[in-house]
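Work through this:
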Amino acid sequence: MNQMTFPDHRPLTTAPQGAGLVPDPRQAPAAAPVMNLTDVSVFYGSYEAVRNTTMPVHTHQITAMIGPSGCGKSTVLRSLNRMNDLIPGARVAGGVTYHGQDIYERDVDPIQVRRRIGMVFQKPNPFPKSIFDNVAYGLKVNQIRDDVAGRVEQALRGAALWDEVKDKLKTSGLALSGGQQQRLCIARTIAVQPDVILMDEPCSALDPIATSKVEDLMHELAGQFTIVIVTHNMQQAARVSHHTAFFTAEVDANGVRHGRLVEFSETGRIFTNPVDKRTEDYITGRFG
């Protein structure tokens, strides 16, 4: 199996102390897509869970996926780094390209895909290891051996966690609070310097204060990474994202539900002037 060829991307950097406020990334101009989905359908066995999704993922911006439960948001998210490959019977039809290359081509190594397109899950999932070893885990798996300590510190700084844990790096990651654990998982993801970060409802298990910290972190990370987030919280989508994709579930003539992308646009337009009435009905609380 051939390894996928990827373009260079910026190393993880930390703004110097006293550098001032981080600009709101939502004010950035539209960037070229780093990924494109074209007529993507996802099947579990014979069941078509998501049907014909076409949308871009813009570079160094945040894309939010919203919609009611069962509309296929997380299924589409997992298709972006081939996580669905791990589900028996799952398959993806259509095209998912990363910098123009189809990630589902037969000679593409899915491990290399996930190296460049990382994932942060709904519930914090630190390993039963020290804080240091949690962050270093991806480096070891990817056989990155140079300056491991420096890379761990950079990742923890990038996840806004360094100051809270620098004196207890040998402590178990499981001893951290829920919000800290989620930021630890983000540090573990960015330690290998991915290009894209996928976040599947990363704040659903967190309290409002921890949620605010993770949202602030997303704003900062968008300067270095492309982020795609699934969220049930429409206010969160409005706060953090540049673009929003609204999904819903349609019932066919046989009574079977299929997830469908209804509308994709700039977040401000989705929430103030949606084109499709189904989008308007959802964001105004008429259904969902």
The domain at 32-122+195-283 is CATH 3.40.50.300 (Rossmann fold).
